[in-house]
Amino acid sequence: MERGETGRGATALATVVGALDALDDEELRGVIARAQGLLLDRPDPLAGYPSLAVEIVGNAEGDLLAAYRALASAAQRRVLVTACHLAHATATAASQPAASPPHGAEGGRRAPAAVWTEERA
To answer: Is 1 exposed, middle or buried (0-12, 13-18, 19+ CB in 10 A)?
Structure first.
């Protein structure tokens, strides 16, 4: 609703706000979730694109995120730098071809396959 708008929009708002008083806690949480979902679907009028990304995470990821957010900003930066280094090292290792086996006792050759035979009576 635009600022200064009167009439039908103001009446609808008054009706909705009045109806909220009759809702129980679970119903209010549902209204909040729906309102937040509607707001997330709308682009930021100044930026022209959504400015908030939401991802649903499991309990373990949520606990990890909560622990990260509880850290001081300097500690958060250290964790972020370490995570970026690990991600880069993992990506680099994944892009490398597999190492060939060392030339040892087998002389770089594959071991012969086992041969299975049946005993005949």
So the answer is: exposed
